Amino acid sequence: MVQELERNRQGVDFPESAPVANPVFFRTYSRRDAMGVRESWQKVCDRTLRGLVELGKLTTAEAALLEKMERSLKSLPSGRWLWVGGTDWIAKPQNFPGGYNCTSTNLEDWRAFGLMMDLAMMGCGTGAILEPKYINKLPVIRNQIHITLQGEIGTTPIEQRREETEIQIADGQVIIYVGDSRQGWVKAYQSLLELSTDERFDGEVQVTIDLSDVRQAGERLKGFGGVANPIKLPGLYGRCAAILNQAVGRRLNSVECCLLIDEAAVVVVAGNVRRSAGMRQGISEDTLFADAKSNLWQQDAEGNWRIDPERDALRMANHTRVFHRKPSLDECIAAVRKQYYSGEGAIQWAGEAIARANCDLLSTKQLKLEFLQAYADGQAAEWLQTKYPQIDPRELEHRLGRYGLNPCGEIIGANFFCNLAEVHLNQLDPDNHKEQEEAFTAAALSVAALLHHKFQEPRYQYSRELDPIVGVSLTGLFDFFVHAFGVEWLRWWDAGRPQTPQGLAFKHQEQEYLSRWRDIVHRVVKEYCDRHHLKCPNRCTTVQPSGTKSLLTGASPGWHPPKAQRFIRRITCRKNDPVALACLDYGYSIVPSQSDKDEDGNLLHDPFDPRCSEWLVEIPVAVSWADLPGADTIDISKFTALAQMDFYMQVQKYYTTHNTSATIELREGEVEALGTRIYEAIRDDEGYISAALLARFDDLQTFPRLPFEPISQFQYEQLMAQVEARRKTDDFYGALLKYDIGEMAEAGPAGCDSDKCMLPEQTPN
To answer: What are the helix (H) ranges across 196-232?
Structure first.
């Protein structure tokens, strides 16, 4: 045992510029081994590499390259693969989707609802298109459902529990015995929805839900990890019945469909095992959908805030308005203004997404422009049929439906799964092109390996056969360019990235790097697919938000600038979590979370106060280039929205062949300018698909205990001195082992690896 612990202890060091890495890694990606000991980074590499080599039938040279890049944190597989790769669980065909970050499903039948719950419980981020052409295929709601609960959770002895849900129907009465498994939960949920349109009943259905076979809170979950916590499960059925009952005599509208999906997501989230990540897409003309989250939060006369309980579940997903025509200038500005005030209402231009997803047909710039014009005129199907008469109707429908988005918007397709790998550019030398080629080659191989999967669900398998997709992302791009171009590049940003001779030279150099990396990825994926007789994806590059995984190397997330040169990063943990206690021994401070207050509503200050339930670990962080001469003179928070948009479009044009996940931060005075720039980018076919917008408030620091708090160099050095003074050990892993007893509460990263999706997680099996 001691020898095994020593082997586990080896190689757990992360870069000095990534002080958040240890807490995040052990909280999020490290599984327990056969002896109940958490994996080290090297053990995770062993497991995940073994899984990729076996599944992908990789050569010795390919395996060696992947190992070199992963162990050195230069190129990493997806967050989901870090969690499940190489386990017995992911080797089972019914669990293949659990290895993928991203999905999107057209919501056109009751089965789609069940699939989305199943996917969420396996760790996938779920996207859904709720446009009339899909949801109008759902049958009219005909039956009023009356719910009765019977049987307390956990009352059936373990050896007698049903794993599969059983349904008994007699004399117009229905009893649903909820099975103690992921599939059991899904079948019970989907069956309830189906009863609302079941023609065997004459307008009324009495439904009894028996929960006695469901394991009680705190019991270990088999296979996937974590512990059960079905706290929200009993309420799911009544909430879904209420939504269905209000639609009797008609079809569901888009918001009711959202609510049904999101009520299941609430159950998934409740158990502290799986975070929720969702995208819901509605047609631009659907005003009900566009306003679904308006006034979600409401304030009473005393100033207290509450959330509308009927729409609370809508917080489980992002909402995007899909335009199948080019939006007007006024529509773009109005959308930006709405996002500034509410954070919702992003515009997606479907034409560009579909054009990119059909680049195998639209192989020249002229063909793409012709298609975009036809799409904007509502003639896309006719144009494709004329140009490519050999395409059958089903394929044509699929090709024109490839605007589905995953939860953070970086992948485009229809009824898809996409696997993501990520190159950590902050770990690479800007002058070492061979190292860069190795990193992007390894990333391309790690995503291509999963193309061997065949899915049990026909709609997903059809998409895999017709339109296989992968995604090679990058993170730390901003850091990479600072190291490549120096502080002058930062000063150019500070000036708004103007089209000066120096600025044009910088842009040309950016484009050279981005294009070279894109070409490496597509070449490697094609060579791999040709050798293995797999259909080759026509789009392979993207940029994901990279919230959690970027912390393993201290990278600025995705393409975005960091929040500041130096800042306090706060990581959420349960009270008395072993990882948090190890952080305490390592010298980091701990404070109660924002949700922990006294009887008068004041924030608690003592993390060991009995009223405290959640901890924030406070970690001082400096970016890798913080000490470059002159870097401190530039205020990153003052970078304009137009400068961010300009850099985002560089990435979108020269690297990304899917979409670039972007969160552009803006001030109120920038609304019209940014709205105008988005309008122009769509009007002029520059490659814009969709981007999220976030209001930037100059007084943000007045809010306490936020995830990021910018600090000065003096404050950083002062805090680091305090950390060193408090530090009891330099061995984080050893400190963790001292406290690490009992069950892990987490089960890996969210399907959307982003700071915007940092909610608890749940998976029952």
So the answer is: none
C-alpha dihedral (356, 359, 364, 370), degrees to nearest 10? -60
For the beta carbon of residue 54, count every other beta carbon within 10 angstroms.
14
**DSSP β-bridge partners for residue 589:** 618
Q: How far apart are CA 565 and CA 479, in angstroms?
A: 11
Over range 588-613, report the average pLDDT. Answer: 88
Instruction: In whole angstroms, give the CA distance from residue 424 to residue 440.
Output: 10
Does the pLDDT at position 418 exceed 60? yes
What is the DSSP track for 726-753? H---S-HHHHHHHH--S-----S--SS-
CA separation for the pair 497, 237 (Å, rounded): 53
* pLDDT surpassing 90 at residue 303: no
Each residue's pLDDT tens digit, 58-79:
999 999 999 999 999 999 999 9
Structure tokens at 379: 């003639």
pTM assigned to the model:
0.93
d(CA 749, CA 752): 8
Between CA 408 and CA 52 the distance in angstroms is: 25
Amino acid at 9: R
Burial 593-606, CB ≥16 within 10 A → b, else e? beebeeeeeeebee
- pLDDT at position 702 is 54
**Three-class SS string for 473-500?**
EEECHHHHHHHHHCHHHHHHHHCCCCCC
Give 592's strand partners.
615
pLDDT at residue 1 above 90?
no
Q: What angle do CA 655, 402, 362 make, to 5 degrees?
A: 60
Q: How confident is the model at residue 754 (pLDDT cuts 50, 70, 90)?
A: very low
Taking the C-alpha atoms of residue 128 and residue 106, their distance in angstroms, rounded to an integer, is 6
Pick from 531, 524, 418: nearest CA to 57: 531
Strand partners, 104: 127, 416
Return the percent helix, strand and coil in the chain, to nearest 5.
45, 15, 40
Strand 75-76 relative to strand 173-177, pairing = unpaired
586 forms beta bridges with none
Element (H, E) at 23: helix 21-28
Cβ-based neighbour number of residue 172 at 10 Å: 11
User: Nearest 5°: phi and psi at 492?
Assistant: -65, -40
Q: Which H or E element spans position 257?
A: helix 254-269
The answer to whether the beta carbons of residues 52 and 448 sit under 8 Å apart is: no
Angle 177-181-184 from CA coordinates, rounded to 5°? 40
Task: Tell me the helices (H) and strands (E) count for the chain, helix number first.
Answer: 26, 23
**Partners of 126 in the beta sheet?**
103, 278
Is the pLDDT assigned to residue 87 strictly greater than 80?
yes
Phi/psi of residue 619, each to 5°? -125, 120
Region at 160 (left for phi over 0; alpha for psi -120 to 50; beta for the rest): alpha
In terms of DSSP H, where are the helices of 495-596?
A: 501-531, 578-585
Gap between the Cα atoms of 539 and 542, Å rounded = 9
Q: Which of 2, 227, 9 is nearest to 736 (CA)?
A: 9
Mean of the per-residue pLDDT values for the chain?
A: 90
Cα distance between residue 411 and residue 102, in whole Å: 8
How far apart CA 209 and CA 177 sit, in angstroms, is: 6
Residue whose structure tokens are 């050896």: 159
Give the integer Cα–Cα distance in Å for 440 and 426.
13
Q: Pairing between strand 204-210 and 173-177?
A: parallel
If one compares 303 and 549, the residue with the highest pLDDT of the two is 549
Q: Is the pLDDT of residue 748 over 90?
A: no
Place of tokens 């009893």: 175
Residue 708 token pair: 């990021």
Structure tokens at 722: 């305090």
- DSSP helix/strand/coil, 21: helix
pLDDT at 750: 52
Pull the structure tokens for residue 11: 């190689």
